[in-house]
Design brief:
α2 runs antiparallel to α3. The longest helix is centred in the N-terminal third of the chain and has 25 residues. The protein has twelve helices and two strands. Helices cover about 80% and strands about 0% of the residues.
């Protein structure tokens, strides 16, 4: 009964907010496809926890809608990002409860994250945003299948996975954070800045600070690595504001109570719109 209530609340909030935000930002363009996509994406995470066969069916439906180009890629990403992040927070829990693993596993995971980030940024530069979002959803679809197989790839991914998370919360939040960034950040330089923070600065913070003295859950050395790496990129891409935004995102990464793969892009989106309003 408790889970049913949680799933109902999750669906209502994710569906209503994703559709409303799409309407506010895009007007009456393609409202019916947007409605269908909001329904499918709002049920996706819930279905994985309650009826897994439906999860795969919904994921295939979402992939079909992305491939059919029924909605602009910005609008598609807005709906997917909002509905998935709300579902994840409400269904899997708001606080990050994953268990930190051995240093070797942490470092390997972060090197993989940087490698993935390199591919993502190349695709953004080349303008393959729709393909990138398609692959992000495809990854969400395939991840539980790969984990359950006995392939060499499966064993490798399992070695990188943190324990006690919903099939891989960190990987999901990276996918969702990327989708959110594509949906809400129109400026390509700021999008590059955000993705660099998500894939590279965050990973450097973990690698540099892994064996250093920690204050709370993070080390000062790791936070410094995050700020220095992002400030250099930020200053090059967006000028003096890049230094300020790098400091703010470094603080968000350090003190975030939930997975920073979500809070870093979310914080960057707020900074982006704040800069638009102030300028």
């Amino acid at each position: 009964m408790k889970n049913n209530l949680k799933y109902t609340v999750s669906f209502i909030l994710s569906f209503s907010l994703s559709y409303t935000i799409y309407y506010i930002l895009n007007g009456s363009i393609n409202l019916f496809p947007a409605l269908v996509l909001s329904l499918l994406s709002s049920l996706l995470i819930i279905s994985y926890k309650s009826k897994e066969s439906l999860f795969y069916l919904l994921a295939v439906g979402i992939l079909a809608m992305i491939g059919a180009d029924l909605i602009s890629i910005r609008g598609t990403s807005q709906i997917l990002g909002i509905s998935l992040v709300i579902s994840m927070l409400l269904v899997s829990g708001i606080l990050d409860k994953s268990i930190k693993e051995k240093p070797k596993a942490e470092i390997e995971r972060d090197y993989m994250q940087m490698l993935l980030g390199f591919v993502v940024i190349i695709m953004v530069i080349m303008g393959y945003l729709r393909l990138l979002v398609f692959l992000a959803i495809l990854g969400i679809l395939l991840l539980p299948i790969v984990y359950r197989s006995n392939m060499r790839l499966s064993r490798f991914l399992k070695s990188l996975r943190r324990r006690k998370v919903m099939f891989d919360t960190g990987a999901l939040y990276i996918a969702i954070g990327t989708i959110l960034s594509i949906g809400f950040i129109k400026n390509i330089d700021f999008l590059f800045f955000t993705l660099f923070a998500l894939f590279f600065s965050d990973s450097l913070a973990t690698i540099v600070g892994l064996n250093r003295k920690k204050i709370g859950h993070k080390s000062l050395a790791g936070s410094a690595a995050f700020f220095v790496s992002l400030s250099l990129v930020g200053f090059y891409l967006i000028g003096d504001l890049g230094l300020i935004f790098a400091m703010i995102l470094a603080l968000i990464e350090r003190f975030s109570p939930i997975d920073d793969n979500l809070t870093i892009p979310a914080g960057s989106i707020f900074l982006y719109y704040g800069a638009i309003i102030l300028m």
